[in-house]
Amino acid sequence: MFMTLCLDIRKKLANFTLDLSLVCPAGSLTAIVGPSGAGKSTLIRIISGLERPDHGTVSLDGVLWNDTCNNLCIPPQDRGVGLVFQEYTLFPHLTVRKNVAFAAVDKDCVQELLVRFGVDHIAERRPAGISGGERQRVAFCQALARKPALLLLDEPFSALDVATRTNLRGELKKIKEILNIPVIHVTHDLEEAFYLADDICVVEEGRLAPQWLERQKNLRAVQLSQ
Ligand SMILES: Nc1ncnc2c1ncn2[C@@H]1O[C@H](COP(=O)(O)OP(=O)(O)OP(=O)(O)O)[C@@H](O)[C@H]1O
Question: Coiled coil where (predicted)?
Answer without folding.
Answer: none
